[in-house]
Design goal:
By secondary structure, the chain is α/β, with parallel strands linked by helices. It has helices at about 10-15, 30-40, 55-70, 95-105, 120-135, 150-160, 165-170, and strands at about 1-5, 50-55, 75, 140-145, 180-185, 190-195, 195-200. Strands 3-2-4-1-5-6-7 form a 7-stranded mixed β-sheet, sandwiched between helices. Strand 5 and strand 6 (about 190-195) form a beta hairpin. The radius of gyration is 16 Å and the shape is globular. The relative contact order is 0.20.
Length: about 220
């Protein structure tokens, strides 16, 4: 199965560099609407049998143009929502963003760690795995999922064989950025492209640009 992971379009919280993970969350900016409208063309060459979106409003709004173009129903699932920021919810300072991301990106090796007043890595991976498993069991050959910057990268670092925590921490995943992963017959996942760039069997060394911006 092919999994097409799509980050939602730009939101007012992204513009303000504000951590916003509570539900239902903000909608899209005008640019975010334009980004969502461009997805059908950007993914025109990709087969999509089913389309999922998280319970965040921004994810569903991003999925809508693609669903309309493909004649698909948007399957809304809580399991692929953004990681709860806990005590960092609403923060807009660099230190808070860094602390939240550093903790979340520790989960592939320390999944029991918990965001203060938020979730643990075990909880996040379990709920995300549940929706991916649902998609696999559906028999679909290719599935799109509109999710979120931290949730997508945490899941990939934990589940994709050729992607590391360093990769996902430093690779940009801009609004409506797309990561494509393929599932092998043994159930393992490998990322084949990240924001349009191919990734080899062992992963590519990420450019040293510092932590990726606009994580949520």
């Amino acid at each position: 199965m092919r999994l097409i992971l799509i980050r939602h379009g730009q939101t007012p919280a992204n513009v303000a560099y504000t951590v916003h993970t509570s539900l239902p969350g903000p909608g899209l900016t005008r640019l975010g609407q334009q980004q969502a409208a461009a997805l059908p063309v950007a993914l025109a060459d990709e087969k999509i049998d089913a389309l999922y979106a998280s319970t965040h409003r921004r994810a569903q709004l991003t999925a809508a143009p693609l669903a309309e173009t493909r004649g698909l129903q948007v399957l809304v699932r809580d399991g692929i929502r953004e990681v709860s920021a806990g005590r960092w919810e609403g923060a807009s300072d660099h230190a808070s963003h860094t602390a939240f991301l550093d903790l979340a990106f520790s989960w592939p090796t320390a999944p029991a760690t918990r965001v203060p007043d938020g979730e643990s890595g075990l909880e996040v991976l379990e709920r995300f795995d549940g929706i991916v498993d649902e998609a696999v069991q559906s028999g679909a050959e290719a599935v799109g999922m509109v999710s979120h910057g931290v949730a997508i990268r945490v899941w990939l670092a934990a589940r994709a064989l050729n992607v590391t925590t360093k990769d996902v921490k430093h690779r940009e995943l801009d609004n409506t950025g797309v990561v494509i992963a393929d599932r092998a017959s043994d159930g393992t996942w490998r990322v084949v492209s990240w924001a349009g760039l191919p990734i080899g069997p062992a992963g590519d060394e990420p450019r040293d640009s510092g932590p990726a911006s606009q994580p949520l």
